[in-house]
Specification:
With 316 residues, the protein is mostly helical. The chain has a domain of 182 residues: MetI-like fold (Orthogonal Bundle).
Length: 316
């Protein structure tokens, strides 16, 4: 429990530091904030003075950050500089598509990445070579290019899946987001499959596995009870990193498939310098990355009790 509280405290500290960096980004960009607010229009000094007063730009920087942080903690992410919509509402309408896409891609990475890695480690021959080739291909092919290939083959030519839109309802989203999720998950599947194959292979040669087989323990029992379970620590680390990065990678896929997620909203907001929206989405991504890493750390103790014991010993 002490370890959990320490990790939560570290996550809070990361969020505070990240929020300061995100907020500072608006003021480090070329030009003054009021110039971004007027969007290049010629306005009178009186209007500029009014804008500065409205957005608190005359206050010291740390005071502005503190006021903004308090509003964020209360769920107020500000207003869009372009549409004057509430940012919380604007993000909330886009977030379900991105979360569904990221969750879909995460499931694909876990199922196919771990599954193919285990099969490649336990079956030598043509299948293993095919998995290794596929993992090398996943490293080499950019996500955007994979999206274009999937759109061309399975969308335009075969017509199996739509190439735009997010769909409605669970079944509609599942159908519309299959190709985007495959494109998003493809690099992660390649990484996880390779790490899983290597980890299982190394565990197969460990002393306790060899001794268990020599004592006559059934190979399938040894495989699932000892080999795969003990090899999951490095695999879990890679899985956490890959899944945590899905939200950051989703904007490429959303832009390619014209999806109404926060990724496409982020691209549009950056292009139009709508910093209130950019700040909100950046904070959401940092929070998601931190929470996923926290979950991965806690899973270590479930996979290997020795980790839990070492954590407890260090805490005492």
């Amino acid at each position: 429990m002490t370890y959990v509280f320490k990790r939560l405290g570290a996550l809070v500290a990361v969020l505070v530091v990240s929020s300061f960096i995100v907020f500072s980004g608006m003021y480090l960009a070329p030009g003054s904030p009021e110039q971004f607010l007027v969007q290049g229009r010629t306005v009178s000094p009186e209007v500029l003075t009014s804008i500065r007063a409205q957005y608190g730009l005359d206050d010291p920087f740390l005071i502005r950050y503190w006021n903004w942080l308090l509003e964020v903690l209360q769920g107020d992410l500000g207003r869009s500089l372009l549409t004057q919509q509430d940012v919380s509402t604007l993000v909330a309408t886009r977030l379900p598509t991105t979360l569904f896409l990221a969750a879909f891609a995460a499931i694909l990475i876990i199922v196919f990445g771990v599954g193919l890695g285990v099969l490649a480690a336990t079956r030598s021959g043509a299948f293993e070579k095919l998995v290794v080739f596929g993992s090398n291909l996943g490293f080499a092919v950019p996500t955007f290019f994979a999206a274009l290939v999937l759109m061309f083959v399975f969308g335009s030519n075969l017509g199996w899946f739509p190439v735009s839109g997010s769909g409605e309802g669970f079944a509609g989203r599942l159908w519309h987001l299959t190709l985007p999720a495959l494109a998003l998950a493809f690099p992660g599947i390649a990484v996880v499959a390779r790490i899983t194959r290597t980890a299982v292979r190394e565990e197969q040669g460990s002393e306790h596995v060899v001794m268990a087989i020599a004592r006559g323990v059934p190979r399938q029992f040894v495989l699932w009870r000892h080999t795969i379970r003990n090899s999951m620590l490095p695999v879990t680390t890679v899985l956490g990193t890959q899944i945590a990065g899905l939200l950051a990678s989703a904007f490429v896929i959303e832009y390619a498939f014209t999806l109404d997620g926060i990724g496409s909203l982020l691209v549009n907001s950056v292009q139009k310098k709508d910093f209130a929206v950019v700040q909100a989405i950046a904070l959401i991504m940092v929070l998601a990355f931190g929470l996923i890493n926290l979950i991965v750390d806690l899973l270590y103790a479930v996979i290997d009790p020795r980790v839990r014991l070492s954590k407890g010993a260090s805490a005492r």
